[in-house]
Each structure stands twice: as structure tokens, then as C-alpha cells.
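Work package 3, deliverable 3.1, input record:
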Amino acid sequence: MRVYADNAATTQMSEAALAAMLPCLREEYGNPSSLHSLGQKAAEILWDSREKVAACIGASPKEIYFTSGGSEADNQAIISAARIGAEKGKRHIVSTSFEHHAVLHTLKALEKAGFEVELLPVGEIGNITPDQVEAAIRPDTCLVTVMYANNEIGSVLPVSEIGAICRDKGVLFHTDAVQAAGHLPIDVSAQNIDLLSLSAHKFHGPKGVGVLYARRGVRLTNVINGGAQERGKRAGTENVAGIAGMAAALEEAVSRLDENAAKVTRLRDRLIEGLSQIPCSILNGDPIKRLPGNVSFCFEGIEGESLLLLLDAKGICASSGSACTSGSLDPSHVLLAIGRPHEIAHGSLRLSLSELNTDEDVDLILAEVPRVVEYLRSISPLWQERR
Amino acid sequence: MALYSETVMDHFMNPRNVGSLEDADGVGRVGNAKCGDIMKMYLKIRDNVIEDVKFETFGCGSAIASSSMATEMVKGKTIDEALAVTNKDVVAALGGLPDYKLHCSVLAEESIKSAVKNYYDRNGIAYDPKDFPEEDEDSCRMV
């Protein structure tokens, strides 16, 4: 038996996505920029996908820019907003300390280029308030970029309220919605979102494709220069199959959003309740405003990589924010941002569910995780000394 | 490609000599919690020979495997033979480690040396401190 509980990393492709992709890979292989009928058929698929994606997030098709994924969309959104700001002499950017690296590293690069970046603290619970954003906005603020939901600890942020504040203050608002799209409702106009990033493979679409939504009137700066694809804002022959697969996956995810969220939330809460019984365990992230599928814990006295390897041997695929799993010296910046000490952050476990998971999956996880944690503690000097 | 060699996985999944020795003659502890790995080595020594050895490790798969392999490499050996075991020997015996995991083998070597040093200290045996690792490191190391 294999239990896949790493859906925040990537998801299994849906049949709908696969069915939409296969014709593009076989008979409809034209280049959408070609004038002949085969090319125009591909252009039709592209437009159709653009309309579908736009409808899923409350945008209009011309506000949709296809990218290689969430990271590219984040880069382009932030770079574009920074350029617009710089032209008006505004060089202050507000964000949070637990954004994805696609956002944080882009901001770091802008800092070197003379921008001032303010990262709002996310507190022990791992969330921010709209008031924090309002207080941070200055006359020279050109961008607020705040993620919709955190990829590691699952907190869902108050993006609608933040959007309203930004619109009121005349500041561009970008949200990295990679973990939210297909899982939480998105309506860019009602939520006053100017720029939004999403990635197909987080909602049962293919890898290597994503979307940057940019509200009409928000001028994009190219990250990839070349041909006139994507209205001149993103060069390169379009990944037609990937885009078609993404549109089909997103359409399906959005049409079943409430039903899936209810199912996944119930499984999630079973896991959280069960794993909370483990002594010296602590839930990471907002316990209430939380992604339906996210379960994140720290277990004292153990290290995450060995936990993952032992769970993998039991057929459970999960992830961790320990340093060893990242190949760096420090554990996850997200866990450090919510104040977990290094030694606790090393013992983190993230289980991320989708609607494909079952109660049997949860049963297996609840049987194996406590056993593995207990075993690792039994051989851990840190745990032995603590007792 | 697998993350670890078969030998590493074997020593991780079925670690040898895991546990502690109540009546150890020397105990070594290296690494720190902040960096995410601690190794503790217990030695039972008679007539200059390591009669028994046990370890406890907080750390990743390669840290546990490195400690396990190190105990096998010193068990039944003289103290001098045990002190001659280097991290490279541990890596070779494990069939290799990923570059960013090499520090685990260093900790394994140092945990043995640290336990021997503790044995020397307890028994008033003279030694050159240069031959032994410094204690209480503050900064984490990759290698």
C-alpha cells in the first residue's frame, strides 16, 4: 500500500488533464503562432484554455499570461510591480517573512538594486493581520506581495482584506496563490488582486506550467524576451499541451472545490487530532484559517529526514522542513519565522492531502507516525537527555 | 537515483549496536541540536581493546548509518586501531555518501575519538589534545 501525502509538493495528474493534453501531444501538435490550419487549431486550444482559466479566477482572458510555473509568475509579477514603482520613485515593498523562495529571493535581488523590502513578522501562529499591512504601507510603497496560503504550514492569509486596503491606498497587490488555486475560492476582482501566481501541478495538472494573472492596466516587464507570445510579455512557443491540461485540471478542481474541501478537511482534522496525541508534538500553522489538506507538526527530539525515510519504507510519502532534507545548514525559513527553535524545526513533518486520499490512508499514517517517532526518540541522545 | 547507497540504507534501517552502555568506560558526544545532528558513543574497554560499543544518534539517515558503521569498525579493535579510523574510512565502508552529507562521517569519527578521550580522562592517561576534536562547536558544518 502506498499513501501519497505530499500533495503540496505535487499532485497526481487528473484524467481530465491527461485527456486534454494527449491530443495536443499527438495530432494537434501545431505551433499557435503558425498561420496554417494546424497552427490555428493550437491557437484555438490556447484561447479556449485562457478563457477557462480566466473564468476560474474571475478574470478576463486577456489578463491571463501563461508561464512555466509559479516561480516564473512570482518573479515576473514582482519585477513588473517594482519597475512600475521605480518609475514613480516608489521603492518600498511589503511582504511577509514566510513567503516562498520564489518571492523572497526575487525581493532579495530587488533589495540589492536599491529597493527597500519590509517583511512582516508572522507570529507564532503563522499569519498576519490586515492591520499589519495597513500600518506598513507608506507613500513610497509600490507593492504588497502576500501569499494566499503558506506551502509548509498551511496558514491561509487574509488576502481579501489586504486587497481592499491596497486598492484603497493605490498600491499594487500581488498574491502567490500557488497553494490556494483549485483549493480555495479565488475571485481576483472581488478580492482586489492586481497580480496573482498559480501553478498547474498543485491541482492535478502537469508540471512546468502556470499562470500570471495581471489586472488590465498593470504593465508587465518581460522576464523572458523574444517572440510576441502572450501579448509580447512572455516569449517562447507556448506549452500548449501543458496549458490545456492545466485549464482542464483547474476547471475540474474549481467545479468540485466545496465538495473536495469538505472531504479533505475531514481527513486533515482526523490526522491533526491523532498526531496531537504524540507527546511533545506541536502543530505548525494557523489551526483555524488553514488549507484543507495541510498537516504540519514538529516532534521534539528527532530529525525530519530519518522520519521521512522510515515512513517511506512503510509506504508513506511525506515531506519535512529539516535542514537535511533541504541540503542546507538551516531548517525551513518558515518554521524559523514562526519561532520554532532550530532543534525543534529539524523534527518537522508535513503531510499534505488531496481528495484522492482516503480514511484508510489516514489510518495507516496514524498507525505508523507515532511508532516511527517513538523509535527515533529511543535512539536519540537529545530525547534521552531531555527525559 | 536513490538518495543513499544500499549499505547506507541497510545501516539506517537496521542500525548495529544501537543503544547505551550503563557501565561505559568512555562516553563521547559530538554535534549539536541546532545543527540537527548529535552522536553519542559509549565504549566498554578492557585491556586496551574495545570490547563493546553502543551509539545513540539524533540526525538524518546518513548520520544514523555513519554511527552504526563506525561502531562496527571499532568493535573488537584496540584503542589505537579505533583512533586510526577516519571519516573517509567510514564513507568508503558505507559505499559513499552524498557530498552534503559528508559531515555525518566526520561526526562519526569524532564521536569515537571523543569517547576515547573521555576514557583517557577518566583513567588519567596522557594524550596530545591535538589528536582529538575540539568540543562544543557552535557553528554548523557542511563537511
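Chain B has five helices and three strands.
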